[in-house]
Amino acid sequence: MKPLAPSSIRAPFARYSHGIELPAGQRLAFCSGQLGIAADGTIPEGAREQADLCFSNIAAILGEAGMTLKDIVRINAYVTDRAHMKGYMDSRDAHVGSPPPASTLVIVSGFTLPEFKVEIEVVAAAPEKRRKPVRSKSAPQF
Amino acid sequence: MKPLAPSSIRAPFARYSHGIELPAGQRLAFCSGQLGIAADGTIPEGAREQADLCFSNIAAILGEAGMTLKDIVRINAYVTDRAHMKGYMDSRDAHVGSPPPASTLVIVSGFTLPEFKVEIEVVAAAPEKRRKPVRSKSAPQF
Amino acid sequence: MKPLAPSSIRAPFARYSHGIELPAGQRLAFCSGQLGIAADGTIPEGAREQADLCFSNIAAILGEAGMTLKDIVRINAYVTDRAHMKGYMDSRDAHVGSPPPASTLVIVSGFTLPEFKVEIEVVAAAPEKRRKPVRSKSAPQF
Question: Which of A55, B126, B134, C98 is most buried by its number of CB atoms within 10 A?
Fold first, then answer.
């Protein structure tokens, strides 16, 4: 995973890479957009707390593929108001690896429930050989 | 194509997978967002009917790559109002394979024409060897 | 990179392909959504000028991976008003290769700054062997 950082254009506004190049022959993980809901159905009010839950969910999903948040190639994030961007970005900066993934952030009108302020979707990649699930509780896949 | 279903997080709200893992070496098909317009230019009024047309169009596009709706890895769907979600989701549930693909659904402000209520975009994948077009009318590609 | 163009469905509204098929074994470049901001921080007012800057930025990013705008597989574009679609589409038509990439266009509520009218995100691909950076100023990567 190689960051694409041309010196000729304005540097990223925040902690993300302008682009990420993947070599051929990687496994890919496409995740569903995650919302800020806990396993017990609780939905925290703040955008930061919702985003933290999204990344926690994403880590669990990627773990099933033997990947971690460090393997994220691109994040597509959606918030329902510009006021929620800071909470989302603080959470993203706390969760992504280095170099950070590519990232797109847009303001939309809403999600499946009105309580949700942020939705986070990722694509991740890893070499074919590293397949052992990351979660210690998980049984080996093969 | 392997569904990623961690037991530690809340189960999907509906018929989609939290994540899909693709092994290395797959062909990929990236589709344009499809809108609910028929070959003759007709645009049905309902979200369900529009979504059905989107999936019908997607099936035709994927067929050119020797793929079907069952090969969809992730769906990104956009609706213009929360009221249109049910129609979209009913259509999705009727069209996707098992395990279902990853899925992201957001409410946006609109599409190229005001009549459109839903737009559906997919990524699909299939092994390199299965290349014969799925549509029976299609000439073999090579 | 093969365009997927089923004759059974309505032809694309504009200069894009309904789908693009990638063979296995390609390198992939995932770019962050680009906004219409110049290296000096200037943000032009018009959607066309902003979109031109986006494509210029994308060309620089892809160049770091030895790719050009002709290697774009799919464009995801977001505008803040239907009135900005023409400016975006004119820019896209002027910048994409032939066959054109897949494309999705939706209207959203906004981006990181209120001045921005369009955001453009791409995925591109190229064979493993073609790795020499495209920008003449760039040092060879290896």
Answer: B126
